Automatic annotation (TrEMBL):
Enzyme class, first EC level, given as a word: translocase
Residues that span the membrane, as ranges: 16-37, 68-89, 95-116
Family membership: Belongs to the complex I subunit 3 family.
UniProt key word Transport: yes
Name this protein carries in UniProt: NADH-quinone oxidoreductase subunit
An MF annotation (GO) of this entry: NADH dehydrogenase (ubiquinone) activity
PANTHER family reported for this sequence: NADH-QUINONE OXIDOREDUCTASE SUBUNIT A (PTHR11058:SF22), NADH-UBIQUINONE OXIDOREDUCTASE CHAIN 3 (PTHR11058)
Lineage per the UniProt record: Bacteria, Pseudomonadati, Bacteroidota, Cytophagia, Cytophagales
GO-annotated cellular components: NADH dehydrogenase complex; plasma membrane
Catalytic activity: a quinone + NADH + 5 H(+)(in) = a quinol + NAD(+) + 4 H(+)(out)
EC number: 7.1.1.-
Major localization class: membrane
């Protein structure tokens, strides 16, 4: 009867489970201890909204243009694009034409989305 060389037993994962339990226990202990031992002083001044030493005026729930959020999403989109392109560019010689065509397809989809955004006037 042959035995598998790379077979893992459940007991092999015990150190990982112990470390996870210890980390989780420490976090729970720290949160409970600071809540129980920390000072509990409340006042109107402490609970007031404060930003840069300027008194708050008006309602904080004013409507914001959706273009602000679209610009933020565009930034994240093109930031993620660089995350995909950098390893490809570093290993371009090794990959050769194997990954060149998929990268062209990826870039064409991105450029189509960018063209759509320009036509919608999101960046104005």
């Amino acid at each position: 009867m042959e035995t598998a060389v790379n077979q893992y037993l459940p007991s092999d994962y015990l150190p990982i489970l112990i470390q996870f339990a210890a980390a989780l226990g420490f976090v729970v202990f720290a949160l409970v201890a600071t809540h129980m031992l920390g000072p509990k002083r409340t006042s109107a001044v402490k609970g007031a909204a404060f930003e840069s030493g300027i008194e708050s005026v008006g309602d904080a729930r004013t409507p914001i243009s959706y273009k602000y959020f679209m610009t933020a999403i565009l930034f994240v989109l093109f930031d993620v694009e660089i995350i995909f392109m950098y390893p490809w560019a570093v290993n371009f010689k090794e990959f050769g034409m194997t990954f060149f065509v998929p990268m062209l397809i990826f870039l064409s989809v991105l450029l189509a989305g960018f063209y759509y955004e320009l036509k919608k006037g999101i960046l104005k």
